[in-house]
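Quick review question:
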């Protein structure tokens, strides 16, 4: 274990997450990193001319990204190596006409829950707003997009004092509509309520508010992640699920060299809500990109079908480490531990993509990279979640494995992972791309 390199990756992950307060900014950060490494941006609407060993990326909706390194084989049916992850995280989205004025001219915002956050962890936190703003253009079918990040603490969701609810520590029901609305300001005049959001967005972007058509804004915890633990062995941050796997894939991919198979880093949006969008894993977006790569290399449909059969996918989404206070929540004989390496996810009813064949492939890759590996199976009395792998195979019948790094408090506003595990999974991804 290279402790210096391990900490370097962990610090870089914390910086990456801080620059990526939501899906749109995650893609923007990915683009910036890839461009610095010599990757060329393509447009889905353009005709592609791809060069052998070329490095490219393309985005969809500004919230998903697909990067690829063209293989050096002359056979268009050689196949693909894929690392897949997602860049969205549970949060709260600002609703239209969101301003609600309360007693004392206290202004709160109407929100809708995105995904499945642990709600009470969002109380009494310094929060900010980020997202995309849609701007008028000369083409009504193609408005312009700008990103906005207020990048400072401008909201909080205040909890009710214990004096008004003596049962609060015994567990209470939380109303998403009543309890979870963030406070943003005390207004001097009730008239300031009208168009408050448009006014602060236009001020932040230095544009006329009349030119703003719409926006997609979400809350995020403003406090930057940090290393914690007596030996600095843990990473404490928001959005580790799944930006830790996005960052790990990027760290391996941005310096990778072309091999016989074409390598792909696929970062999807909307995994937390089922992936059923044009930029999600349930759409044909990845299949279409792979097909275009085969065709651009002078292959045909038959070559594409053959390439699918020769491909292998690693679906990377964070996994559950055994909780020190709740070990009984896990399977009796399979206990993924912090600091013991990436976790293969297994499910008898195929909520996960992994099977004996694909698990063996990933275990072999880990051994070649000198990386420990673990396995996760749900406690049989509890329902687990699902992830990208089995959704993607509804589009393409591809071999693959679902993996992720062990973590605590998944979907909390602040999650915990292990420094060593992040180093391990990057090493495994690098080895996979070297094959």
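Suggested answer, residue by residue:
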């Amino acid at each position: 274990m290279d402790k210096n390199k391990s900490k370097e990756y962990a610090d870089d992950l914390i910086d990456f997450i801080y620059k990526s307060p939501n899906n749109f900014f995650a893609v923007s950060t990915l683009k910036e990193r890839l461009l610095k490494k010599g990757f060329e941006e393509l447009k889905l609407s353009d005709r592609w001319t791809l060069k052998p060993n070329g490095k490219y990326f393309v985005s969809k909706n500004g919230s998903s990204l697909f990067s690829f390194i063209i293989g050096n084989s002359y056979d268009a049916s050689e196949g693909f190596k894929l690392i897949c992850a997602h860049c969205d995280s549970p949060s709260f989205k600002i609703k239209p006409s969101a301003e609600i004025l309360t007693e004392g001219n206290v202004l709160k915002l109407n929100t809708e829950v995105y995904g499945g956050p642990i709600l009470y962890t969002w109380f009494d936190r310094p929060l900010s707003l980020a997202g995309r703003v849609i701007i008028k253009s000369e083409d009504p079918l193609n408005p312009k997009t700008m990103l906005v990040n207020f990048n400072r603490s401008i909201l909080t969701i205040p909890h009710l004092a214990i004096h008004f609810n003596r049962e609060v520590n015994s567990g209470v029901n939380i109303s998403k509509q009543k309890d979870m609305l963030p406070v943003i300001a005390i207004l001097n005049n009730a008239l300031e309520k009208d168009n408050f959001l448009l006014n602060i967005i236009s001020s932040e972007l230095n544009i006329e508010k009349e030119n703003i058509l719409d926006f997609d804004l979400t809350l995020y915890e403003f406090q930057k992640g940090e290393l914690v633990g007596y030996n600095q062995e843990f990473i404490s941050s928001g959005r580790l699920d799944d930006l830790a796997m996005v960052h790990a894939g990027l760290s391996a991919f941005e310096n990778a060299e072309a091999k016989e198979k074409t390598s792909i880093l696929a970062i999807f949006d909307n995994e937390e809500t089922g992936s059923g969008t044009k930029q999600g894993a349930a759409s044909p977006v990845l299949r279409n990109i792979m097909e275009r790569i085969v065709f651009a290399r002078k292959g045909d449909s038959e070559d594409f079908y053959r390439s699918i059969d020769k491909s292998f996918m690693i679906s990377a989404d964070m996994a559950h480490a055994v909780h020190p206070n709740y070990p009984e929540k896990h399977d009796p004989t399979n206990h993924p531990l912090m600091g013991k390496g990436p976790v293969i996810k297994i499910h008898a009813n195929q909520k996960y993509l992994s099977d004996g064949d694909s698990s063996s492939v990933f275990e072999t890759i880990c051994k070649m990279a000198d990386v420990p590996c673990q396995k996760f199976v749900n406690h049989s009395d509890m329902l687990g979640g699902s992830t990208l792998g089995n959704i993607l195979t509804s589009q393409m019948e591809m071999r693959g494995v679902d993996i992720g790094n062990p973590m605590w408090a998944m979907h909390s506003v602040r999650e915990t992972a292990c420094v060593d595990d992040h180093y391990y999974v990057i090493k495994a991804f690098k080895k996979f791309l070297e094959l």
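Why it works: The CA atoms of residues 221 and 377 lie 31 Å apart. The first strand starts at residue 40 and ends at 41.
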